[in-house]
From TrEMBL:
<keyword id="KW-0326">Glycosidase</keyword>
<keyword id="KW-0378">Hydrolase</keyword>
<dbReference type="InterPro" id="IPR054491">
    <property type="entry name" value="MGH1-like_GH"/>
</dbReference>
<dbReference type="InterPro" id="IPR012341">
    <property type="entry name" value="6hp_glycosidase-like_sf"/>
</dbReference>
<dbReference type="InterPro" id="IPR004888">
    <property type="entry name" value="Glycoside_hydrolase_63"/>
</dbReference>
<dbReference type="GO" id="GO:0009311">
    <property type="term" value="P:oligosaccharide metabolic process"/>
</dbReference>
<dbReference type="GO" id="GO:0006487">
    <property type="term" value="P:protein N-linked glycosylation"/>
</dbReference>
<dbReference type="InterPro" id="IPR008928">
    <property type="entry name" value="6-hairpin_glycosidase_sf"/>
</dbReference>
<dbReference type="GO" id="GO:0004573">
    <property type="term" value="F:Glc3Man9GlcNAc2 oligosaccharide glucosidase activity"/>
</dbReference>
<protein>
    <recommendedName>
        <fullName>Mannosylglycerate hydrolase MGH1-like glycoside hydrolase domain-containing protein</fullName>
    </recommendedName>
</protein>
<comment type="similarity">
    <text>Belongs to the glycosyl hydrolase 63 family.</text>
</comment>
<feature type="domain" description="Mannosylglycerate hydrolase MGH1-like glycoside hydrolase">
    <location>
        <begin position="42"/>
        <end position="435"/>
    </location>
</feature>
<dbReference type="Pfam" id="PF22422">
    <property type="entry name" value="MGH1-like_GH"/>
</dbReference>
Length: 446
């Protein structure tokens, strides 16, 4: 039986109680300019976490929402990449692994003065910035958008330029961590041949398994491969020159590229607001959506798959990544219907009256794991992205069912990092910021 979330009285919690719980979680995780994902496992600032967190903060602390994004983009690299971690210099060396001493970005060309990682995460920041402005429009929000706009454009330019390894107009990720879905079964095939020798595994001490059950986290073998991929990138000082010829992991991800297209739509709106030209953003949005459909949609399975650029093949795993292109407002009708068919299938179980949470991986697959990180559990952020996509494509009944499922997860288990895909029990870190933030956004749309 799941313990009652702290701060909620006995009996079904009211929407007002859920809102208070979410606000208290975000306030508790505020860290002098940004919000940590949690006080246990994640003591620094994470890139796409901050975007999701800003969306919720806009409803209750709009000044903090803008500060969240400003703090993140202040650590942007000269080439436009937004690092997936910005490290808190106040924490002692070794307090988190892999920390700044492992990444060693100070020797990389164009790295900021702040200590960061050298990887990226899905570019959900422009849509988040636009939503923050919509939730709390003001002169201050327009000023914030003016400051962010060139930085968001630089982020897009980096991803569509330096990272277009396949040459077809899509961004390539160079590490599973860049997808946001770190341990997804989608990465098993491209990682299968990578080295993971015992020396690498002995050279570090994992911190995640000190805070969470090891059975819920990536295996030591996978973690050693993650580090080997970073080491390959770090050896060349995080340069993207010649990636196709030398880097061991190169994948076009449906979520990253759907976010890339959605960002161009958001940038068009921002540009129009601040007096810039929205036309180029609209044109790029069209090209990205066309490339996404051409490169990553499989008409046989009727869903989107990552493409392994090493093999040239689509990765067969059917994960929640395949549903994420629904966030694109210009996704063609054929693909919209196909994604909805996939989402409603027994693999994911989307319906107007959901009896189980939406999983992160095909629940009918033999490698479905309901407890292990991204290999089955339900996550608020992917649920929220799909919910926004359903609203965009005018599917109110399905959107209402998914929203109700999201609220039920927190009502049952609190603001956990992720949830059991059958029971809804809370898993991972408690008092998790993006769960609280996106709960606030879902509550506001009721």
């Amino acid at each position: 039986m799941t313990a009652r979330p702290a701060g909620l009285r006995a009996g079904p919690p009211s929407l007002a109680e859920l809102r208070r719980l979410a606000i208290a979680t975000l306030d508790g995780n505020w860290e002098h300019g940004h919000t940590v994902p949690s006080r246990t496992l994640y003591p620094h600032q994470w890139s796409w976490d901050s975007a999701f967190i800003a969306v919720g903060l806009a409803h209750v602390r709009p000044d903090r929402a803008w500060q969240e994004l400003r703090t993140l983009f202040a650590a942007q690299w000269a080439d436009g990449r937004v690092p997936h971690i910005v490290f808190n210099p106040a924490l002692r060396v070794g307090s988190y692994f892999p920390g700044p001493e492992f990444w060693d970005c100070v020797r990389a060309d164009g790295a900021p003065t702040a200590a960061t990682s050298g990887l990226i995460q899905p570019p959900v920041h422009a849509p988040a910035a636009w939503l923050v402005h919509r939730r709390a429009p003001s002169e201050a929000s327009v000023r914030a958008l003016r400051w962010l706009y060139p930085r968001l454009v630089a982020q897009q330019r980096y991803l569509t330029g330096r990272r277009d390894v396949g040459g077809a107009g899509l961004a390539c990720i160079v590490h599973p961590w860049e997808s946001g879905l770190d341990n997804s079964p989608a990465w098993d095939a491209p990682m299968a041949g990578l080295p993971a020798d015992a020396a690498v595994m002995r050279a570090y001490r994992r911190h995640d398994t000190a805070h969470a059950d090891a059975a819920h986290r990536p295996t030591d073998l996978d973690y050693a491969r993650y580090l080997a991929i970073v080491a390959s990138y770090r050896q060349r000082r995080y340069s993207d020159d010649g990636l196709a010829g030398r880097h061991p992991f190169l994948v076009e991800c449906p979520l990253v590229n759907a976010a890339l297209g959605a960002a161009e739509h958001a940038l068009a709106r921002i540009a129009a607001l601040i007096g810039a030209d929205p036309g180029p953003h609209r044109d790029r949005a069209v090209r990205i959506t066309e490339a996404l459909v051409d490169r990553l949609y499989d008409p046989v399975t009727g869903t989107f798959h990552p493409r392994d650029l090493r093999s040239g093949r689509l990765i067969p795993a059917r994960t929640v990544l395949g549903l994420m292109p629904l966030i694109l407002p210009d996704l063609p009708t054929r693909q919209v219907e196909a994604v909805l068919t996939e989402a409603r299938s027994p693999r994911f179980g989307l319906s107007p009256r959901m009896n189980r949470p939406l999983p992160s991986h095909d629940r009918t697959a033999p490698d479905f794991e309901p407890l292990r990180y991204w290999r089955g559990p339900s996550w608020m952020n992917t649920n929220w992205l799909l919910w926004r996509g359903l609203l965009t494509h005018h599917r109110p009944a399905l959107a209402a069912g998914l929203r109700e499922s999201m609220l039920e997860l927190v009502a049952r288990s609190g603001c956990h990092e992720y949830f059991h895909p059958d029971t809804g029990a809370g898993l991972g870190s408690p008092a998790f910021s993006w769960t609280a933030s996106l709960l606030l956004d879902a509550l506001a749309e009721g």
